[in-house]
Amino acid sequence: EVQLVESGGGLVQPGRSMKLSCAASGFTFSNYGMAWVRQAPTKGLEWVATISYDGSSTYYRDSVKGRFTISRDNAKSTLYLQMNSLRSEDTATYYCTTTALYYFDYWGQGVMVTVSS
Amino acid sequence: DVQMTQSPSYLAASPGESVSISCKASKSINTYLAWYQEKPGKSNKILIYSGSTLQSGTPSRFSGSGSGTDFTLTIRSLEPEDFAVYYCQQHNEYPLTFGSGTKLEIK
Known about the structure:
The complex is a heterodimer.
Chain A: E1 3-7, E2 10-12, E3 18-25, E4 33-39, E5 45-51, E6 58-60, E7 68-73, E8 78-83, E9 92-100, E10 103-107, E11 111-115
Parallel strand pairs in A: 2-11
Antiparallel strand pairs in A: 1-3, 3-8, 4-5, 4-9, 5-6, 7-8, 9-10, 9-11
Chain B: E1 4-7, E2 10-13, E3 19-25, E4 33-38, E5 45-49, E6 53-54, E7 62-67, E8 70-75, E9 85-90, E10 97-98, E11 102-106
């Protein structure tokens, strides 16, 4: 059974950093592209970033480009999202997902990030 | 960016009925459209990708159609577990974009 478990969220002040992790199991992690999708409170879903199966290619939405970095450790079956210079508009639940052909096959339960002073 | 306009935002129906949800793209996305189901306390689930291909495990009462800019998700003979929020998403180009969601509630 595919399992994606996010961690690392919480309350952070504007301008500070936070790193999310996603522990994957139940599939061959190194064969799959991975992504982060977020959902602000009472809002819809928003794609954040994607990384290829081997980490050689990354893609970001414009609003996080230069501030967020997606990475992975295939030996540990773990996906990361380093978030710097956080803004109030980054407040959301962040979901770790597998991705194939640009859609999202499996989703984690999500981790909440609140950016507030 | 490709804007995805989903309608209606809210839909009430009874078990056994059939419903349709529309998703319109601001430009052609070929057939690269996915549908997801969101339920409280559960992980989001992909139902359909590439417009009409059912993900493994998706019940056959779900179907997707359309190409270009206009797409439809149809659920025939609603079951109690189908009452949820549904999102469309274009998977043709970056940035990947979602519709605003349709909440399907029991009448």
